[in-house]
Amino acid sequence: MSKHAKTTISLLDPALVKPALWASVAKLSPSVQWRNPVMFVVYIGSIMTTALWAHSLRYPGDSAMPSAFVGAVALWLWFTVLFANFAEALAEGRSKAQAASLRSMRKDSWAKKLHEPVHGAAFTPVRSLELRKGDVVLVEAGDFIPLDGEVIEGVASVDESAITGESAPVVRESGGDFSAVTGGTRVLSDWLVVRIAVNPGESFLDRMIGMVENAKRQKTPNEIALNILLVALTIVFLIVTVTLLPFSIFSVEAAGAGTVVSLTALVALLVCLIPTTIGGLLSAVGVAGMSRMMQANVIATSGRAVEAAGDIDVLLLDKTGTITHGNRQASAWFPAPGVSQGRLVRAALLASLPDETPEGRSIVELARLGGSDTSPVANMQFHPFTAQTRMSGVDLPSGPDTQEAGPVLLRKGAVDAVRKHVEQLRGVMPAEVLRAADDIARRGSTPLAVAQGARVMGIVELKDIVKSGISERFAHLRRMGIKTVMITGDNQLTAAAIAAEAGVDDFLAEATPEDKLALIRKYQADGRLVAMTGDGTNDAPALAQADVAVAMGSGTQAAKEAGNMVDLDSNPTKLLEVVETGKALLMTRGSLTTFSIANDVAKYFAIIPAIFAATYPQLSALNVIQLASPSSAILSAVIFNALIIIALIPLALKGVRYRPVGAAALLRRNLAIYGLGGLVVPFVGIKIIDWLLTAAGLV
Q: What is the C-alpha to C-alpha distance for residues 369 and 350, in angstroms, rounded to an integer?
């Protein structure tokens, strides 16, 4: 399902079109139609015109219009309703196809439920549906992971192509942010001991299916506001149209000429003047927005999240993996005065053993490549790296160089964190070490300090590279009025160097989970909408607070539950694509609304002269496109009103192409293309239909 592996479903795919045709008929139920007030008016008008047609067939002399004409108007009014239903059904069909694809991944497999939560313990074979949250299972090579869970022991290669579409396997292991596993994926090598995190029916796959099922889609605030506007316009035109009948009766009696306007003509006028185009496509646009997000391999929990992405004005982005390549590697050693490089390497190596981050492992690897002994010391007490302490380390029963007696604390981590640790032990950070750390930070690298007890041993340099083209993307966001903020655990100097190179607007250095949460709340208190990404449990509070929170598919269960979107590709830069998709949704809705309101003008010029010219011949001057007859003018406008919905379905489903421009430029473009187009296209379309009807002798 990734953009590299998944296939895109064509709009005209028979697998989508045939069910959509049937669904458009099923949606003619009044219980469905009343949910869309604009189209419900068209629905009532269709019923009324059909009744008038039946009456004209039975009592030809009572009808002011030929029964064939009344029947044709009724038929095209029904087509208007059906075409609107078809647009919504086609959008829902794409989501249903995606849900069906996800549903096919669900497997009722067998699992090895362990009696004790350790590898090698006895197990009992059970079906995956019998497992419950908290159960511990053994998953060996070739086995499917039965349900979502956390790896508590082992390291294995896992095939997640069923979820992400990427054929390359990923490594899942205990500890860190890569311990989460998803039900339905398969272990390719080695083994894992997994603690089940959900009950059957609550898995990530089940939630994904529920997310893309359009029946659960809630209307967004902007969609509700637009609906209110459309309803208000519909009520206004309804009142105007209703008053035209007594006005016509009075005018005919006063002038002693002409004919009273027919109910068929009034219904046709009402349907053509109310915003049926956007009314018929509005729901399809919302459903298609979630579908397009799904095609980008992002699952949105609701349309609200997609729409909020379009309104975002602050982006919080992690430095590692988003702005930089994220593979910070230990590259050099800088011993403190009086410390040999060998002692620094050994201390850094031991302090990094409990560090499961890529940075910690790179220190171990650099030490190994330098010929250092990477074996642990007996009776070590581990202190894993955490976002709160920003350090890792071990407590040894004696010094690692065997020159010290008694317990020794080895620590490796952020310079300021190690400095506080050393000062608590009544030590001092040498000025030479601080200068070395500052020099490393100014180059855009990350310095990590190493301490043995109260003595600072030196600095390890970690190098990372800013992604190419990222500054241009930030420039585009800036032109849209979106502020970008880089979040990093690095010190101020390193963060400033990376921020300047990447071109972000602001940065938060030495960030803890509490700092992220406080920053989001600060922006929200200023009336800003904030988006961010995260993958770890420590990101969950900030994700829950953000307006748009994209959790990584490879992240922890807590992060996925806190976010309102899940990126199956686990690509932090996807946040930029999410914003663009949200913007495209708002642009599509605005463009279609502009077009819909503008094209009512042409229909006004077509129908008003047709129904009142007999009483007021002067109104013939409004027949600017020289339509052949009143009957042809009315029928041409009704036919165009129906066909334009079908013509705009591809635009509604695919969306208006996103362009990184400001609001003023976007408004000008909207008015130039969809406003002017909405004025011109109906004149041309109605004239062509009038010519065809006249040439065929149908009016």
A: 15
3-state class of 427 per DSSP? coil
Q: Is 56 exposed, middle or buried (0-12, 13-18, 19+ CB in 10 A)?
A: buried
The residues, ordered by sequence, that sit 6+ positions from 180 with a Cβ below 8 Å of its Cβ are 148, 149, 150, 151, 172, 197, 554, 555, 556, 557, 560
Beta strands 170-173 and 155-159: pairing type? antiparallel
Question: Is the pLDDT confidence value at 278 over 70?
Answer: yes
The one catalytic residue among 148, 206, 318, 355: 318
Rounded Cα–Cα distance for residues 155 and 313 (Å): 40
Q: Look at the block and give the residue holding tokens 């390193």.
A: 494
Q: Is the pTM of this model over 0.85?
A: no
Q: Please identify which residue in the block is written with the tokens 């729409």.
A: 307
One-letter amino acid for residue 136 of the chain: V
The two structure tokens encoding residue 220: 């967004």
Q: What SS3 state is found at 356? A: coil
Is residue 128 a contact partner of residue 146, using CB atoms and an 8 Å limit?
yes
Phi-psi region of 88 (alpha: psi -120 to 50; beta: other; left: phi over 0): alpha
- Short-list 83, 123, 487, 493, CA closest to 321: 487
Count of Cβ atoms closer than 10 Å to residue 123 Cβ: 15
Q: Does the active-site annotation cover 318? A: yes
**pLDDT tens sequence across 83-112:** 999 988 887 777 676 666 666 656 667 889
Question: What is the C-alpha to C-alpha distance for residues 2 and 21, in angstroms, rounded to an integer?
Answer: 29
